Each structure stands twice: as C-alpha cells, then as structure tokens.
C-alpha cells in the first residue's frame, strides 16, 4: 500500500509539474514596411509672360499653377527658376541690364519671393494634396537682345522630415 501511495504521489507531482512547466502564452507583432516613393506634378507646365518693356512686371494670379504630391508620403516642395542655356538674360534678386527677376507667391511663400535661388514652396505636403502658386516676372532695365528668352522653373520634392 505504501508503494502504491508513493507511486500515486510521484505520478501526481509529475503530472502537476508537467502541467505547470508546459503552460505558456504567446502573442505576435505584425510589421510592415513601405519604400518611400516621391512624386510631383505641376500643371499647367508652361506659361508665356509675353512682351514687355524695361522694368515691366507680368504675373499670374489666383493660384494659376498647381503642384500635386503624387508620392506615397509627405513631401517638402522646393521651387527655383533659372535662365535656359543660350539665354542672354539671367535671373537675380533685382533687375538690371540683361538681368530679370522671377518671383513666386503661394504655399509657405506668403509674399512675393525671388526664386533665382531655391525656396521652400511647401514644407509638408501630404500624399495626394496640392498647393497652388503664382509667378511674377520683371523684365530687365535694359537689354542687348530682342530675342525670346527662355526660363525653367524647377519644382523638386524630397521626403518631409
């Protein structure tokens, strides 16, 4: 009888110990990752400031141009204007002989700002969102050419921080 009691006691300790040692609980963490895709479109993508005389200004109004974030993440949008290769005229902060001015208004640029150097048009533009802007052009104070001059306005998107 003693042997049976001892065996039963050992068996119950083994079963109880196995039940305690095999008890566990788990959970999982679901992870995702997405590669950032930057994208930007501008419409319309051309504009003619027309004819002008010394010191004349010509500008768009009402948010004529629209930039859209076509990427999948928030973007910082920069804008900069430059004279095309072969131009006689250059761009600067003030006009002069063969020197014109291009300014932008819209987004984070709440007053007309020269864009002969890169400026931040929008510091944080959500995916799918748009920002409107206008351009102003001041003709040189004097010129040595009467040929049409060409300029490029570059809109650049980088990941917003």
Keywords:
161 residues; mainly beta; Immunoglobulin-like; seven-stranded mixed β-sheet; three-stranded antiparallel β-sheet; 1 helix; elongated
Brief account:
The chain has a single domain (40-159), classed as Immunoglobulin-like (Sandwich). The longest helix is centred in the first third of the chain and has 20 residues, at 2-21.
Describe this structure in words.
With 161 residues, the chain is mainly β. It has a single domain (40-159), classed as Immunoglobulin-like, CATH 2.60.40. The protein has one helix and ten strands, in the order H-E-E-E-E-E-E-E-E-E-E. It has one helix spanning 2-21; strands at residues 40-43, 57-59, 65-69, 75-83, 90-91, 99-106, 109-114, 119-125, 130-138, 151-159. The strands form two sheets. Strands 1, 2, 3, 5, 6, 7 and 9 form a seven-stranded mixed β-sheet that branches. It has a three-stranded antiparallel β-sheet with strand order 8-4-10, with no helix packed on it. The model has no long low-confidence stretch (mean pLDDT 90).
């Amino acid at each position: 009888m003693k042997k049976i009691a001892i065996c039963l006691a050992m068996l119950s300790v083994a079963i109880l110990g196995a039940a305690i040692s095999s008890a566990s609980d788990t959970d999982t963490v679901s992870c995702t990752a997405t590669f950032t895709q930057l994208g930007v479109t501008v419409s319309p993508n051309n504009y003619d400031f027309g004819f002008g005389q010394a010191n004349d200004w010509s500008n768009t109004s009402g948010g004529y141009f629209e930039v859209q974030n076509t990427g999948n993440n928030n973007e910082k949008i920069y804008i900069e204007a430059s004279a095309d290769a072969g131009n006689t005229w250059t761009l600067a902060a003030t006009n002069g002989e063969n020197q014109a001015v291009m300014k932008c208004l819209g987004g984070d640029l709440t007053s007309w700002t020269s864009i002969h150097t890169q400026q931040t048009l929008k510091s944080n533009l959500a995916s799918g969102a748009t920002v409107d802007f206008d351009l102003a052009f001041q003709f040189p104070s004097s010129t040595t050419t009467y040929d049409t001059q060409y300029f490029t306005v570059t809109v650049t998107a980088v990941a917003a921080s």
